[in-house]
Amino acid sequence: MTVDAPISQSIDKNNLSNFVYLDHAASTPMRAEAIAAMAPYMSGMYANPSGSHRFARIARKAIDEARDEVADVIGCKAGEVIFTSGGTEGDNATIFGAARRKGGIAVCSAAEHHAVLHCVENLNGHIIGVDATGVIDVNALEQVLQDSQIAGRVNVVSVMAVNNEVGSISPLRQVAKIVRANAPSAVLHTDAVQATCWQDLREISKLVDVMSLSAHKFGGPKGMGVTMQRIGLEIDPLIVGGGQERDRRSGTHNVGGIMATAAALRETDSTRDVEIARVTKLRDALVDAVIAGLDDVLETVGRDKRVPGIAHLCIAGCESEAILFLLDEAMICASAASACASGAMEPSHVLSAMGIDPKYTMGALRMSLGHTTTERDIDRASTALIAAVHQLRRNKTMSKTMSKTTHKVSASK
Amino acid sequence: MKVLVAMSGGVDSSVAAAELIDQGHEVVGVTMRLWGGESDTGCCSVSDVDDARRVAQQLGIDHLVFNFSEDFDKHVVAPYVQAHVDGITPNPCIECNRHLKFDRLSERARILGFDAVATGHHAQITRDQDSTYRLTRGHDELKDQSYVVYMLDQAELAFTMFPVGHLTKAQVRDRAVALGLRTATKPDSQDVCFISRTGGRETFLGHRIEFRKASVITTDGVQAGAVDALELVTIGQRKGLGLPGGGPKKYVVDVDMPNARVVIGDEDQLLRTGLVVTNVMWAEIEPTIGVTVLVQCSAHGAALPAVVQSLNPLVLKFEVAQRRIAPGQSVVCYDPTNSFVLGGGIADAINPINN
Fold first, then answer.
1. Could you tell me which residues come within 8 angstroms of residue A108 by beta carbon, excluding any fewer than 6 positions away?
2. Which residues in chain B are closer than 8 Å to A326, comparing Cβ atoms?
3. Where do the domains of chain B lie?
4. Chain A partners of B154 at a C-beta cutoff of 8 Å?
5. How high is the ipTM of this complex?
6. Using CB atoms within 10 A as the burial measure, which of A19, B211, B271, B345 is most buried?
7. Is B274 within 8 Å of B263 (Cβ atoms)?
8. This prediction's pTM
9. C-alpha to C-alpha distances, B92 to B72, B138, B210, nearest whole angstrom
10. Distance between CA atoms of B32 and B72, rounded to whole angstroms?
């Protein structure tokens, strides 16, 4: 059988500048301000900020200032900021920490990131369904919280601010209203990892008790996170030891990481409005080009219902892994759903919770944009994607014809 | 050529990738993620994926992971469970080759624009005078795996490469050592990859089906013992039948699933000359009725002479009676020189010649 020539044989794959990076929802390039902010604390000013000497006080002052800065962007008190190792820690610490203190029932939506979902499943909690856009079904949430078996026993409700796969924006205001009215003693947590670049965190934080962020999703370093936790909540620490972060999270401060996180968050906040306008335009151009060039492509969630950075498409007649391979050959970095430990793509629990036809979900593709995305990236990506899907659909038809003419045996019983 | 090499994380497929690079091919390694449940390392577990990826990095080739776990459940695990319910011997490794490596993966490879799929099987693909492809036994006769890939037809043989088939296992290991590959001394995988050593087959099946108790009777219908799990009994089995000690050796000669009875008898009652084979496919053309072929009924069993008595269904008559082939076993016919595969199929429950 004949085969297509690879789409982009001419591209030098060893040249990093040939990458078109459309996987900002997985991780973002660090901002120059963040790298500059962390460097001095990795070489010259390396003391442990918990020390009592003058050298330690230099580091202590740095993280105190960083905390003020983070609190300002989040819209909370400095004492409510906890530096963590990332979004997963924030999610785990909140859900398990609340359960450890007072037991009870944990509740979350079916489209949460695994860092929330697996905690709630582990505690045999309640998973609330989502609507066709992937956001929590607020009526179902209300019903569960009012259920006589459950009412009064819910200790934590976790609802993501923005979905990491399809980008849909949760109705947090409604969620907060329902939780406050029906489960006033429950901790309301939001994983706002995917919201940071696109939404004013002050608007989110005022609705919830705890909010988890991940630094590398907004131009900060990997292995750093921020959790905003209101004072006086009934949450036990997950990590105990030296009592750092007011006993809420022990472990020597990652001073450089904290400095970089604060710098990246400041930069994200101050450029957000401009970036929203710029990236929305690029994202729309990308999706428009792909839809114009291909039949049978589903834009998974309407543009008004999701953040600017995410273009999520479901392409009929193709498999995600195959699309990603051909995009990879063209040095386009994209994603389908979450990857498991082996690196394989897992079928998306988000798309199946949304009830999308499997004909479409098997060809799911997420392209996520961010502060380094350019018009050239969009052009190259849309061209490569259209060519890839044409190749896959054409070869699939040929492969089918071939297997029909070949004598195949069926499985033994 | 652009070759997609299936890398299980074992030494054979590691060296297969190295051989292909030497031959000047453009090589991409892929590990199939097949089983999401509990398992030991051996084939395609996360640690095997790590090994495959590390080898690919050492060799300087791309490495991908394809998630075919749904297909694996459907075509390998579910039939494995159902076979036990039906009292049939399952062939999970052969079904995995048939449906995953040489169907799902080769289809994916074609769609992506590859020219061939390669694996680390010890088998060889040769051409005869008129260019027909022949699935030939591996050079290392002790490690030959042509039996487990017998289902490859001409189209698949044309699209498949076995880069280590011309090497002995010792040569493969030497090559891996010379290249400094971390899989060089990794033991061969032995067991069914989705059955863990600690839990075993009984635990695995126990979570999925309800075992039926069964009585053990002699060929004359005399009650002799009992078993707790009819589904775990295999033809030829001697132990675990609840029989009193002493006396002549007794073997399971039949498993009667509908009536939940295990029939035992003497060794000679296990012997058969006839064998009916279903789901047969031939590598090239059907053999002529009356010819003698060599028939192999297990991965490392001897190939014994048998005459082709009919073709639809395929009926074989062994020259020397041998122990009954359990229904469900793969039956592979080789040419009279015992060097290449003529075709094969699945042993049927019916035994035409009961003597």
1. A95, A116, A117, A120, A125, A126, A127, A128, A157, A158, A159
2. 112
3. 2-179, 210-265, 270-347
4. 406
5. 0.85
6. B345
7. no
8. 0.90
9. 10, 21, 20
10. 10
Which range of residues forms the domain containing residue A150? 32-268
**Contacts with A223 (C-beta within 8 Å, 6 or more apart), sequence order:** A85, A86, A216, A254, A257
**pLDDT tens sequence across A310-366:** 999 999 999 999 999 999 999 999 999 766 666 777 778 999 999 999 889 999 999
Q: Supply φ then ψ for residue B68, to 5 degrees.
A: -115, 30
User: How many cross-chain Cβ pairs, A to B, lie less than 8 Å apart?
Assistant: 96
Q: Which of A218, A246, A268 is the last residue of a domain?
A: A268
Single out the residue in A223, A239, A268 at which a domain terminates.
A268
**A256 in Cβ contact with A264 (< 8 Å):** no
Q: Which class is B210-265 in CATH?
A: mainly beta
Q: Do B279 and A343 touch (CB under 8 A)?
A: no
Edge-to-edge strand list for the sheet holding A310-315:
A297-299, A310-315, A364-368
Instruction: Pull the structure tokens for residue B124.
Output: 């060889």
A411–B95 C-beta distance less than 8 A? yes
| Residue in A319, A325, A342 to test binding to B, most B beta-carbons within 10 Å | A342
Q: pLDDT tens across A48-57, in order?
A: 999 999 999 9
Residue of A nearest to B113 (CA): A3
Same domain, A139 and A114: yes
Q: Which of B43, B44, B93, B193 is catalytic?
A: B193
Contacts of A113 (CB under 8 A, 6+ apart): A87, A91, A160, A164, A191, A193, A338
